[in-house]
Amino acid sequence: VSASQGPPARHLWKSGSGRVWRCRCPQLHEEKAMTELDHNKAIVRQLLEQGFNNNDLTQWDELTSPQVEMRSSPTAPPADRDAWTQNVSALHHAFPDIAVTIEDMVAEGDTVAVLETIRGTQDGKFLGFAATNRSVTIHACAIFQIRDGRIVAVTTVADMLGLLAQLGHVSLPS
């Protein structure tokens, strides 16, 4: 997103401070006035649907701040963008058909919360475990913080115990 100087053009939006921005992701929305909340949701949707689902790492570079902090749980130490994109690549190697479906998305202020369903088939090594060729479905919640049109922080909480159980690596009590 870049600050706009001049007459209104396609895909502009105003922040709460009144600053006008030109959108980097015009393919995701119609030509209409977007609120800052709509724009923040479009950024997250583009990152998940194009960046994650298509393993398109250029989307991560485009839509996240170079100093983005990404956590796999609220108490986990933050990972930088390079570490996170390596994790995404490793997931795509282990689960070549992995895909996120956005079930719900809510935005308030600079925060976007997403309820996700993640599906895939383990055809490669994952967390030290050999391929099982089992299909899995897990749920996750991700909280994104956005400033000046870029994602600056992400915390994702996924059902890892459910994932390991579906892969046959742990047993859950009945």
What is this structure's SSE topology?
Layout: E1 2-3, E2 12-14, E3 20-22, H1 36-52, H2 57-63, E4 64-71, H3 81-94, E5 99-108, E6 111-121, E7 135-147, E8 150-158, H4 160-166
Parallel strand pairs: 4-8
Antiparallel strand pairs: 1-3, 2-3, 5-6, 6-7, 7-8
Helix pairs in contact: 1-2
Task: Tell me what you see in this structure.
By secondary structure, the protein is α+β, with helices and mostly antiparallel strands. Helices cover 26% and strands 34% of the residues. The chain is built from four helices and eight strands. It has helices at residues 36-52, 57-63, 81-94, 160-166; strands at 2-3, 12-14, 20-22, 64-71, 99-108, 111-121, 135-147, 150-158. The chain has a five-stranded mixed sheet with strand order 4-8-7-6-5. Strands 1-3-2 form a three-stranded antiparallel sheet, with no helix packed on it. It is globular and about 45 Å long.
Net shape: globular
Considering DSSP H and I runs of 4 or more, what fraction of the residues is helical? 25-40%
Strand content range = 25-35%
Order of helices and strands: EEEHHEHEEEEH
**Cα-based radius of gyration, to the nearest Å:** 18 Å
Distance between the termini: 50 Å
Average pLDDT level: 85
Category by helix and strand content: alpha+beta
Describe the sheet with the most strands.
Answer: 5 strands, mixed
Helical region count? 4
Instruction: For the largest sheet, list the strands in their spatial order.
Output: 4-8-7-6-5
Instruction: Indicate the low-confidence ranges by residue numbers.
Output: 1-11
List how many beta strands DSSP finds: 8
